Amino acid sequence: MAKKKKNIPQYGTVTRKGVLYYRTRILDADGKQVSLYGTTCEELYDKEQEARRQVAEIIFHREHPTVAEYCEKWLLMQSAKVSPATLKGYASNMKNYIIKPLGDMYMEEVTADDIRLALIPLSNKSESLHNTVNMLLKCIFYSAERSQLLEYNPCEGISAKGGKPTQKKDSLTDQQVEVLLETVKGLPPYLFTMIGLYAGLRREEALALQWDCVFLDAPTPYISVRRAWRSEHNRPVISTTLKTKAARRDIPIPKCLVNCLREAKAASKSEYVIADSEGQPLSYSQFKRVWQYIVVRSTKERTYYKYVNGQSIKYTVQPSLGGHQKNNPNIVYSLDFDVTPHLLRHTYITNLLYAGVDPKTVQYLAGHENSKTTMDIYARVKYNKPEQLFDVVNSAFHQAVPS
């Protein structure tokens, strides 16, 4: 069977560096005119057809992106607004919980049922993770709708509730704070712990703190939060870009922290308040090792794997309070409560509220941009006991007279 003959147009010619070429012009995907060249009409015709096919494909994908393609575009648009750490978290959650189940579908094909099916695996995850993924889905599809890529938004009517409820951690009691400080006294995490408990700094704020922002000899000693720490490929990066505008604040500090910082400054050879042996800010793995001094002294159950006759055997150990670690008798299990870096900050905020500091002032000292965050903690602190509610109700209605 004879091959169908191409209907090759007559192209114009142009001479470049003494060589004769056939030339034509087409519009690219951005509407700009580009030139194509060929030594023969047949070669130029094939180039033109391939170029037009690629342009049509690009335009089609712009107007009809897959979920994976639009997720990538949305992340790029967010890169100018959010921190690299936040962007990294978004990308990870998108990959695992959005792109994996929906990535190959065109955005316009996705239905509300597809969204609900994608959220099913998150029912066994934490409430916070479910909320984050739900938020990302809505941001992506509402953005596509605003860009007129969708006639119907499948996220409308999707409930934000789901996942396993996250257990709210109570702040440390005064007794627990005393035990914790006694436990870490003289150990690497002591200074970080003091800053968290008595200045309420976030981890990234404490690890970026430099001595030029610690004013110990001022009439009212204070810490000025001006820098933030983050980790990139396990390397510390210090920047002046804070979590929010509200994170930039000056925090008066109590005498116990002033004395602690004064002692640390006298012994310091670094511009950083918390530094490694070379005077540099801690890397992520270095901070984990520092915090491990606290973890190994807790009575929290541990899981180990031991090789016996070539097989990996899993076994658990439940340390007893006051006991000593088998391999290192100098380590005493003195903490029968959980401690996290964030719990130090939460304890600071809670203690301010217990002391009667008004929520607006607490919001400033904590660096909360949204007052709802402060008020949620305030409500838990002030009204977490029946007798407190009883007093509030009776005070409100003490003049009421029964009919």
Q: How many β strands by DSSP?
A: 10
Report helical residue fraction.
40-55%
3D shape: elongated
Q: What fold name stands as the CATH topology of the largest domain?
A: hpI Integrase, Chain A
Helix tally equals: 14
In round numbers, the mean pLDDT is 88
Question: What is the spatial order of strands in the main beta sheet?
Answer: 1-2-3
The number of distinct structural domains comes to 3
Q: What is the ordering of alpha helices and beta strands?
A: EEEHHHHHHHHEEEEEHHEEHHHH
CATH class of the largest domain: Mainly Alpha
CATH architecture of the largest domain: Orthogonal Bundle
Organism: Enterocloster bolteae 90A9
InterPro entries: CB, DNA_brk_join_enz, Integrase-like_cat_sf, Integrase_catalytic, Integrase_recombinase_N, Integrase_SAM-like_N, Tyrosine_recombinase_XerCD
Domain Tyr recombinase: 167-391
Protein name: Site-specific integrase
Structural description of this entry:
With 403 residues, this protein is of the alpha+beta class. The protein folds into three domains: 13-63, no CATH class; 67-146, DNA polymerase, domain 1 (Orthogonal Bundle), CATH 1.10.150; 171-298 and 335-384, Intergrase catalytic core (hpI Integrase, Chain A, Orthogonal Bundle). Helix content is 44%, strand content 13%. The chain is built from 14 helices and ten strands. A hairpin with a 2-residue loop joins strand 1 and strand 2 (19-27). Helix 7 runs parallel beside helix 11 and helix 12 (359-366) packs across helix 13. The longest helix has 23 residues, at 41-63. It starts with 11 loop residues before the first strand and ends in a 7-residue tail after the last helix. The mean pLDDT is 88. Keywords: DNA integration, DNA recombination, DNA-binding. This is Site-specific integrase. Belongs to the 'phage' integrase family.
